[in-house]
Amino acid sequence: MENTEIKLVETRLGPREIRLDRVVGFPHGLIGFEHLREFSLLQVWEDAPLLLLQSMEEPELGLLVADPFSFIPDYKLSIGSAEQQTLQASDAGHLAVLVTASIPPGKPEETFLNLLGPILINHRARIGLQVPQPEDSGPAHYYVYKQSQ
Question: Is there a contact between 95 and 101 (Cβ–Cβ < 8 Å)?
Fold first, then answer.
């Protein structure tokens, strides 16, 4: 086993050891957090459909994210050649796609995914990029627990 540097980060899930060789750089930050450039993906709990995109620079910031294809198999993603170049990906199929998840306080049954601001990650190059989608590309949100009528 190689010697990997680890940083202890006090996340909203409690203290977590983060391998620095797994930190993903975001050259443009994220919408609303453009000044933050380094994040790591953490499991919320084993087999959970949600992950935590943890800021390495501001430990109190961790965004819940999920793979949209786990919920919406036909989710459409628009990515241009400039974004693919930034991500160093010749094929968009080599990228991990995540969307942010919101859980309203005290109302977990109203959990929804933001479909208009997907986050793409090239794990090999350790580069991430948020790629806003056109507003006419489909629904802006997907409610995880649809209410039965």
Answer: no
Q: Which two tokens stand for residue 28?
A: 């443009």
Round the CA-based radius of gyration of the chain to a whole number and report it: 16
> Which DSSP letter does residue 61 get?
-
pTM of the model: 0.91
What is the distance between the alpha carbons of residues 129 and 119, in angstroms, rounded to a whole number? Answer: 6
* pLDDT-based confidence at residue 13 (cuts at 50, 70, 90): confident
Residues near 7 by Cβ (< 8 Å), separated by ≥ 6? 17, 18, 20, 56
Cβ atoms of residues 34 and 75 within 8 Å: no
Counting Cβ atoms within 10 Å, is residue 33 exposed (0-12), middle (13-18) or buried (19+)? middle
CA-to-CA dists, residue 10 to 37, 52, 55, 89, 107, angstroms: 18, 13, 11, 32, 25
